[in-house]
Amino acid sequence: MIIKLKKEITSQELESMSSYVKENVGTVKLVRTKEGQYMVCIPQEDFDIRNIGKWAGVEDVFRVNDKHKLVSHKWKISPSSIQVGENLSISQEQFHLIAGPCSIESEKQVHNTAAFLRKQGIKLMRGGAFKPRSSPYSFRGLGLSGLKFFHRIVHDMGMLVVSEILDPSQLDEMYPYVDIFQIGARNSQNFILLDCMGSVDKPVLLKRGLSGSLDELLYSAEYIFSGGNENIILCERGIRTFETAYRNVLDLNAVPYLKERSHLPVFVDPSHGIGVRRFVPTMCMAAVGSGCDGLMIEVHEIPEKSKSDGDQTLNFREFEILYQQIKSLRKGFYN
Amino acid sequence: MIIKLKKEITSQELESMSSYVKENVGTVKLVRTKEGQYMVCIPQEDFDIRNIGKWAGVEDVFRVNDKHKLVSHKWKISPSSIQVGENLSISQEQFHLIAGPCSIESEKQVHNTAAFLRKQGIKLMRGGAFKPRSSPYSFRGLGLSGLKFFHRIVHDMGMLVVSEILDPSQLDEMYPYVDIFQIGARNSQNFILLDCMGSVDKPVLLKRGLSGSLDELLYSAEYIFSGGNENIILCERGIRTFETAYRNVLDLNAVPYLKERSHLPVFVDPSHGIGVRRFVPTMCMAAVGSGCDGLMIEVHEIPEKSKSDGDQTLNFREFEILYQQIKSLRKGFYN
Amino acid sequence: MIIKLKKEITSQELESMSSYVKENVGTVKLVRTKEGQYMVCIPQEDFDIRNIGKWAGVEDVFRVNDKHKLVSHKWKISPSSIQVGENLSISQEQFHLIAGPCSIESEKQVHNTAAFLRKQGIKLMRGGAFKPRSSPYSFRGLGLSGLKFFHRIVHDMGMLVVSEILDPSQLDEMYPYVDIFQIGARNSQNFILLDCMGSVDKPVLLKRGLSGSLDELLYSAEYIFSGGNENIILCERGIRTFETAYRNVLDLNAVPYLKERSHLPVFVDPSHGIGVRRFVPTMCMAAVGSGCDGLMIEVHEIPEKSKSDGDQTLNFREFEILYQQIKSLRKGFYN
Amino acid sequence: MIIKLKKEITSQELESMSSYVKENVGTVKLVRTKEGQYMVCIPQEDFDIRNIGKWAGVEDVFRVNDKHKLVSHKWKISPSSIQVGENLSISQEQFHLIAGPCSIESEKQVHNTAAFLRKQGIKLMRGGAFKPRSSPYSFRGLGLSGLKFFHRIVHDMGMLVVSEILDPSQLDEMYPYVDIFQIGARNSQNFILLDCMGSVDKPVLLKRGLSGSLDELLYSAEYIFSGGNENIILCERGIRTFETAYRNVLDLNAVPYLKERSHLPVFVDPSHGIGVRRFVPTMCMAAVGSGCDGLMIEVHEIPEKSKSDGDQTLNFREFEILYQQIKSLRKGFYN
């Protein structure tokens, strides 16, 4: 059960409400986000929610029989709109591309790519400063210094920054330079990091785990929301299977499933989803067909020289053609 | 190495050619199809193919370093066109839908569905007479008698029949009533059945196994082609993974991969690929985006009363809307 | 519900019994095996089985709420014992090894291997005459002629023959030369072949599919039993996963699960289960620890020269050492 | 290439050595552990290692063509022995059980369990203070206060503490109360946490990821070793597959593979590996058969009342019987 509280609820009303629910319904978690205040209750047994609705300070009460509560579509019928920076919102109204290199490598690289992307009309640029790598001997990113110039160049061009955080200890130093925090596949069930993201007042793009079930993904999103941050974008990025013909199996089934189960926007990352550069544009088309709200695509001036993920990264010309196709497809789609 | 032989090659030329290759190159398999004659050679070691090209009766010689030979795109650059019946061809030039019920249930059911599909403009109708079922106690199809009236009704309406064969012993009785033989996922590596399909002069729609790799799918197609039948349609129908939110994971990555590796047309079966009726239309859109050459969709007048696969079957109204969307999407796609 | 019928039931009693059940309980399937006669009923709704017990010709009635009926442990509490040939029985009382080459290659090969195995005390020898191979260009076995001399040599040495059947069309010709028919992983859901095995009066060793669930395996066994043959051995042989360090993942969890769910004996095939020769002996030890009733192991005089599966086949010396270890382990296990 | 340095190497020798290698061989990472000093070099191209051997301060040089270096068996032929506390060492010489509850729940619970385990002769007790849970609304452990009394009681009984760490921020507070830090499956590729474990002078038990490949597990161990801590125990705990009959598939193939590839000890966790209480003892037997160096088993006085993982936890009586069987099996094994 979710109890949506009025903004003007007094602390006394809140307290008596909370004790009442604890005593008569079940466990209670109070959730405060920028957008609202909620009480999430896991009832011990069946309960007449009308009793709750009459209390002072209560805006609305919802019975949510999903295991996921705050991220469920059952109580919040209209899809969420995620505010990024001051002038951008991510929702199903408008399709967004997040594009950019896997890793931040140099000022020149960032500058050239940012200039190209801005010309294309892209508003969200990705770039990894801290890279999770299987081997400790691989390139692990330029760290904070890289993120700083990335942020400067990208903002100078009027775009916003998407970058991955690996650990709560990085939050304070990264905070000023990031507009959307990305949680990578390997951290999809790093619950301490998810808790930490709940305390942040910036949006989070949450990737599905390597073999994460969609219910686990929704639970991970629930961590962030119940921690106090309701600005979450879900991202399908391919799962691990027996098939070795490509890096991952992009699971587009996830898109209609997630959009039915949750009010959160759903993105797709075809670059990781197939992991083969020449197939990425096709899988972007497929993803658009699946009804996702946006795409994340890896772009590099010279993918062959990229320090990571070069095998799945498009060059400028490939991206440009793809972007035209996406626009054309989406037009066809809705006419 | 594939040696394409001239139609007019004499048996003497063929014989001396064959002994020469056996002695100097490696193992030889002579393949005769309706469309042509080929020698497939697995060379012991490197060999100068120019020596072969000069022989009488040789049209062309191709070095194919894929493990798959006859189905490989390496020697046959242009995509294959599959002739079905007398007036229909399946190729990447034109997009085709195969639609119809999972199982043939009654004359009335077939008649109503066929009339509906014809009105929509569908040319290929599916219907199972022999159903592979996990449990021996489930409905296993009406068998030959069902297939007979299915064929009569479908042909009367000017459409063609797609139906699954489970065993070589069914070939003779099924032959007059089937236009495209379907090999189901559970028989994707039934090599005796594949051999048998090689001897047939009608097209075969070959589904990927439950957890079949794409290389195995191509090998299975190679069985059919090298058995003498080059009219093969590959079909992605979802794979088995850890995810339990839906019946299978539709692997659209397979489409660009297969179309690069092989000259054969590639279909997608979103009904099995997600197994959830209300998500099937969305996954059809995604499949179209992935560039497949056609779709196979389960349709029933009242899916709730279907004897099998009702959970993933569209009703007439749903199919009609979907079909309009597919047409609209494909227009957008190519403009 | 399973109704075990008396041997002496009259055809009239049977008929009236059958109509009564059809009318009052649900669908009925009459199953006749060498060992007994059964009626398997899938009741429409709850039913008082005591009514049935009183009928003439009824030996016993069992309520089986498993989806698998005849193979379920719920009605047959004591584990099954499978008679092979005249003097051998497979059950959990005595541990059996099935050993031998992947493929029958030559009389000399079979003779040397058979002589070695007999000296070791092995009673069941495997050898493939018809080989299921991913590629049509691989060695596909010597066929019937190979099976004939295999049978002669193996029987001359007092052992029994285990060999794989690929298709019902092979049954008649193989029948005289096989003591246990093997159904391979790729045919684990070849329902026509399973039906066919139901009609045979020799035991069947049924392998789990590449990615077959255990419930599917039990269903496939139910096909054979309900077809009239209750002499079935289940065999775990590794499943397909994301892990590429070995050929398959031997799933020993399957052993206690299958032994709880079914009264049938459970074997393990560690040769396919890991697919790496030097690890096979260790996985045999693990399999014994899991409580299986027997093992199937690939053995060849010179594995490096084996025509198939050489990478997972033990030589004579390795097998000899392993066999000693198995005996020693099993002693330790039960003391 | 691994250069093992002498303890008495001077800083000047080290410096000139390091520059020489950087210039002539490739990238260099200096690794200092309690036990020794190493230089790990990833050579750009082939290099004559004999040149290195002559330098002052060099004890030995090893060419390691594995992608894993310090954890590889290629350079360290003898299996590692891991010192825990002052009087215990984990190695393949002696088999160890880690036993205890999933979660620390109360002093009474810990006391009763500890008393029982000590009587059995167990030396390592597990208990979770910080629990990773899919849902934010599940019990997440008693935290530090629980760990403190756990440590006191366990140490009072002469046993040592194994407990899971979720995040680097917990290290300082947990450090005094933990003898072996456990890294759970969901953190198997939490690289920041792995880095952090590299800086600790206590052993780490590292679990394989939910769908982590064994090569990824070895890489994760390499993070810890190259971070400065060579006291690592690898732990197989089941992988995620399509099979839903049990929680995970215990992959015992991993044991011989890991023991061949690495010098580190390998444990198995059958409780998570099958996730079904009544099958856990059988899978312990199988694990012993696979040659692992130890087991981790969940034990609770009343599993039905356990706050987490009750479905896979043994009670005292079950554990006692199992322990006798393990001892008996291991005797049989080596006789």
Textual characterization of the structure:
The structure is a homotetramer of 335-residue chains. Chain A has 335 residues and is of the alpha/beta class. Chain A is 34% helix and 19% strand. Chain A is built from eleven helices and 14 strands. Chain A has helices at residues 11-24, 50-53, 107-120, 143-156, 171-174, 191-198, 214-226, 254-261, 270-274, 280-289, 316-334, and strands at 2-5, 26-32, 37-43, 58-62, 82-84, 88-90, 96-100, 124-126, 160-164, 180-183, 204-207, 232-236, 266-268, 294-298. In chain A, the strands form three sheets. Chain A has an eight-stranded parallel barrel, surrounded by six helices. In chain A, α3 (107-120) runs parallel beside α4 (143-156) and α6 (191-198) packs across α7 (214-226). The longest helix of chain A has 19 residues, at 316-334. The radius of gyration of chain A is 21 Å and the shape is elongated. Chain A starts with a strand and ends with a helix. The mean pLDDT of chain A is 94.
